[in-house]
């Protein structure tokens, strides 16, 4: 336990140092980077990715993976938009529906992995395609829109994006969710068993604990987080396009790994994940401020992901060498 905590603290420190260095670099090299609009853009792009990343952190700590969170988020948003625009449902019911859709997909993933026995990669890859297709089927491949800050139901954008005084309300929700999930991971039985399953699932089983139930809970949390992310994505972009969502899961997983969560399981933290989320957002906005086109942004983001995964592999190798000694 002590070694795990030390690893997490060290990686968080390194990640935070990288965030500061990155921000200072773009403040010097970029144009109009240190401005209020840019800061608001960094925050706005961090909200939905932040929820996705926090949720998938639970899954990765168990040693699993969830490739469906991006398309599940879009599917959840499309269901909410369908209820709002086509069926004239109150917006608060649409919000609840988005959360329920995401949670249901998370439960489905958990059952496929823990009860049916499918590998997490295959199960969640299938769910990625199912959720992408379902969103298109429900909306008849038509975009769905949510109210902007200038329309009726403008409270949606003011509550989940930014208030009339431009205060970043999304940061309040993301911060609150961070605190809740931090407590779950570090102060509850669920969190202890999630770490234990990721460290040595067989040992957990031999101790008489039903490890599959705790793994299932991690996937449910990931799905729930994707449903919540759909709310903030809808508030930020207002237009939801069917057949999209692929790629958001990679940004979220990259943020998780950058923040110090090991892909081999057993090590990680939601606070480190949030630092990783901001690193990704600062990188994207910083490259824009330097005038680099989209392909360069994708290229450098990929480089950061490769470096983060390489560092994770090296940490795992060193840990295994210590265990053998």
Report what the structure shows.
The chain has twelve helices and two strands. With 325 residues, the protein is mainly alpha-helical. A two-stranded antiparallel ribbon has the order 1-2. The longest helix is centred in the C-terminal third of the chain and has 31 residues, at 294-324. The chain is globular. The protein starts with a helix and ends with a helix.
Number of strands: 2
Helix content range of the residues, please? Answer: over 70%
Structural class: mainly alpha
Q: Order of strands side by side in the largest beta sheet?
A: 1-2
Topology:
Layout: H1 2-29, H2 36-61, H3 69-86, H4 91-116, H5 120-139, E1 144-145, H6 155-160, H7 169-187, H8 189-206, H9 211-237, E2 239-240, H10 248-258, H11 270-289, H12 294-324
Antiparallel strand pairs: 1-2
Helix pairs in contact: 1-11, 2-7, 2-8, 2-9, 2-10, 2-11, 3-4, 3-5, 3-9, 4-5, 4-9, 7-8, 8-9, 10-11, 10-12, 11-12
Which keywords apply here?
globular, 1% strand, 77% helix, mainly alpha, single chain, 325 residues
Give a summary of the structure in a few sentences:
The protein is mainly alpha-helical and 325 residues long. The chain has helices at 2-29, 36-61, 69-86, 91-116, 120-139, 155-160, 169-187, 189-206, 211-237, 248-258, 270-289, 294-324; strands at residues 144-145, 239-240. The two termini are 18 Å apart.
């Amino acid at each position: 336990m002590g070694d795990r905590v030390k690893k997490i603290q060290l990686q968080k420190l390194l990640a935070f140092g990288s965030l500061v260095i990155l921000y200072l670099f773009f403040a010097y090299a970029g144009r109009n980077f240190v401005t209020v609009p840019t800061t608001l853009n960094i925050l706005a792009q961090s909200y939905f990715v932040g929820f996705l990343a926090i949720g998938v952190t639970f899954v990765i700590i168990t040693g699993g993976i969830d490739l469906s969170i991006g398309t599940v988020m879009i599917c959840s948003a499309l269901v909410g938009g369908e209820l709002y625009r086509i069926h004239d449902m109150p917006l608060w019911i649409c919000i609840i529906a988005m959360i329920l859709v995401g949670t249901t997909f998370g439960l489905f993933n958990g059952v496929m992995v823990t009860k049916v026995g499918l590998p997490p990669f295959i199960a969640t890859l299938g769910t990625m395609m199912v959720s992408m297709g379902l969103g298109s089927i429900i909306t008849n491949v038509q975009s769905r829109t949510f109210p902007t800050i200038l329309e009726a139901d403008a409270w949606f954008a003011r509550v989940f994006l930014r208030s009339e005084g431009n205060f970043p309300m999304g940061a309040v929700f993301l911060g609150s969710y961070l605190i809740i999930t931090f407590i779950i991971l570090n102060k509850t039985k669920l969190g202890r068993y999630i770490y234990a399953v990721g460290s040595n699932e067989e040992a957990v089983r031999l101790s008489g604990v039903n490890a599959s139930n705790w793994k299932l809970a991690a996937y449910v949390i990931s799905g729930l987080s994707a449903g919540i992310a759909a709310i903030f994505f809808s508030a930020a972009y207002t237009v939801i396009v069917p057949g999209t969502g692929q790629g958001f899961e990679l940004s979220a997983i990259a943020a998780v790994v950058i923040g110090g969560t090991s892909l081999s399981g057993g090590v990680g933290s939601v606070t480190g994940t949030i630092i990783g989320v901001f690193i990704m957002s600062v990188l994207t906005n910083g490259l824009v401020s330097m005038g680099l086109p989209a392909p360069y942004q994708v290229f450098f983001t990929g480089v950061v992901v490769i470096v983060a995964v390489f560092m994770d592999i090296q940490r795992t190798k060193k840990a295994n060498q210590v265990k053998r000694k």
